[in-house]
Amino acid sequence: MSEKTYPPSQEFAENAHIDAAKYDEMYAASIKDPEGFWAGHARDLDWIEPFTKVKNTSFKHGNVDIRWFEDGVLNVAANCIDRHLETRGDQTAIIFEPDDPEAAAQHITYKELHENVCRFANVLLSQGIMRGDRVVIYLPMIPEAAYAMLACARIGAVHSIVFAGFSADALANRINNSGAKVLITADEAPRGGRKTALKSNADAALLHCSDKVRCLVVKHTGGQTTWIQGRDIDLKAQMEQASPDCPARPMKAEDPLFILYTSGSTGQPKGVVHSSAGYLLYAGLTHKYDFDYHDGDVFWCTADVGWVTGHSYIIYGPLANGATTLMFEGVPTWPDASRFWQVCEKHKVNQFYTAPTAIRALMAQGKEPVEKCDLSALKLLGTVGEPINPEAWNWYNEVVGKGKLPIVDTWWQTETGGHLLTPLPGATATKPGSCTKPFFGIEPVILDATSGEEITETEAEGVLCIKDSWPGQMRTVYGDHERFEQTYFSDYKGYYFTGDGCRRDKDGYYWITGRVDDVINVSGHRMGTAEVESALVAHPDVAEAAVVGYPHDIKGQGIYAYVTVMNGVEETDALRKDLEKWVRSEIGPIAKPDIIQWAPGLPKTRSGKIMRRILRKIAENDFDTLGDTSTLADPAVVDDLIEKRKAQK
Ligand code: 6R9
């Protein structure tokens, strides 16, 4: 961990929305009088009916209830589009850069966005979609994904995006859990020169869903698909016929805007529910201040809209601010390792926001792919998704930022809606690897993991909790409020528990040390080890499986699976391949184990609990600090596992 600090340049600080003095003053005000602070900012939104109540929140287990601006009425899509038409109707809202670098980019103005979203909303209405109905979106990174989200928001439908890398089974689960009436997909998703057959995944998923679910299909590549009359609808053809006008429906501040499924430490993924007004306010404000976004800037977040980062920082945050936001369909390393930088040059990107895993992958390709591009428009770099190691931070700073640009390391979660811990680029001196300080209105606390006591000294290490609510906070787990309370408010009473471990240094800077639960972070994607385990044990040849994370040079963490086969089944390479394929089809390619180790026995306590701590150490090649193994039912299994681990590359 580096203690070197990087203060903002004087020039940057002078032109920034927030400098150091202003941060201190505004932060203090936001904690002293949250109602005044948030009401002041919320009034900048366009309200159909203004709110009179600001905050009504309780973190009390058994009574967790979170409401912001609850008697206000507004429409999120109108705030992201209509509000800007008069002043910036002809400005580009979305730049679409396709996978194929030879294909033309599209510049979609706010006026065009308005028209497309209205047409799309009218298609949804014609399918009988009403306020509160759920719509699942399974699309590539194409403009229709943005239209679909905003069309739902316009008519008060609740979208739930499923990342296009998830399998048919995972898609079916989410359609069924959310009770969606419509699935929106495309024929194919091109990425890195290859095409994924999205529609055929959708077809396979819909076999497990109600036959009432309709399927709107974007003919994107024109690839061949099966077509089921009466169920499948050609979206573009319908949009052409639909009216370009569709009034934005008045929605209550607390009406749900979207559901996004995310992995937890147990069971099936949880449907994280976000609100309308609070979420939009928080995404917009963090986008403006944390990236120091100014009118006319081109902002690029490289995430996929299938993750929360894409929701908040490709769509809602930037569009709430009337920004120009870039949507990129491709991957960083195709056709070659300079693609990101070529896109930055081509579209004169001003703020660039990506994940440490991408930085590490590009770092491995050397400086040349970066240096051959003109990155002079860049003003700021951002990172998100996992802790960034100092080597990657330094490379990002020196090679991409030429040592001149602020780097914002933003810590947040699907559950938080937007950044909670982040530098403000004109105010905060950064330290490589630290997400620095809280955003306005956020009160982070570090608790002793076992006693649950708050550690009040500046220097502290323990679990990260948040003391009070902020507008962007998730409101519930879809259909299971008890699980919401249980997951986030039961371990440490009265606090929101993040699931992350954290250290606070002598300057009050926060350093995330990683998850303290059974969630791993693979290439910045959250994965529950329990999910991968249940996929593995569903295979007929598998008796038992235990999955842990281990350090991986590019991905941050890799997936390490210990597998016990059924009696009489042989531990062959062919079975290993088959298991990899199996997990890909049960969950998706991102869940494929990096290493499968055969484990004739797993280390268990006498009561039958798998000792994951030991499995983690073995996966990390750390055999000397296994700790006490005497409570194991059969301590000899450990020696066997160590021997097999040593035999792996
Ligand atoms: C936005 C997003 C959330 C988990 C979170 C933490 C890790 C995210 C981080 C970070 C260190 C950062 N995480 N940002 N760790 N530094 N800047 O990634 O949401 O997919 O829900 O993951 O990711 O462990 O708890 P999500």
UniProtKB/TrEMBL annotation:
InterPro entries: Ac_CoA_lig, ACAS_N, AMP-bd_C, AMP-bd_C_sf, AMP-binding_CS, AMP-dep_synth/lig_dom, ANL_N_sf. GO terms for biological process: acetyl-CoA biosynthetic process from acetate. Residues 23-80 form the Acetyl-coenzyme A synthetase N-terminal domain. One of its GO terms (cellular component) is cytosol. GO terms for molecular function: acetate-CoA ligase activity; AMP binding; ATP binding; metal ion binding. CoA binds at R191, G192, G193, R194, T309, S523, R584. Keywords: Acetylation, ATP-binding, Ligase, Magnesium, Metal-binding, Nucleotide-binding. It catalyses: acetate + ATP + CoA = acetyl-CoA + AMP + diphosphate. Its EC number is 6.2.1.1. Residues 531-609 form the AMP-binding enzyme C-terminal domain. Its cofactor is Mg(2+). Acetylated. Deacetylation by the SIR2-homolog deacetylase activates the enzyme. ATP binds at G385, E386, P387, D409, T410, W411, W412, Q413, T414, D500, R515, R526. PROSITE patterns: AMP_BINDING. Mg(2+) binds at V537, H539, V542. Pfam families: ACAS_N, AMP-binding, AMP-binding_C. Residues 82-469 form the AMP-dependent synthetase/ligase domain. NCBIfam families: Ac_CoA_lig_AcsA, PRK00174.1. Catalyzes the conversion of acetate into acetyl-CoA (AcCoA), an essential intermediate at the junction of anabolic and catabolic pathways. AcsA undergoes a two-step reaction. In the first half reaction, AcsA combines acetate with ATP to form acetyl-adenylate (AcAMP) intermediate. In the second half reaction, it can then transfer the acetyl group from AcAMP to the sulfhydryl group of CoA, forming the product AcCoA. PANTHER family: ACETYL-COENZYME A SYNTHETASE, ACETYL-COENZYME A SYNTHETASE 1. Belongs to the ATP-dependent AMP-binding enzyme family. This is Acetyl-coenzyme A synthetase. The gene is acs.
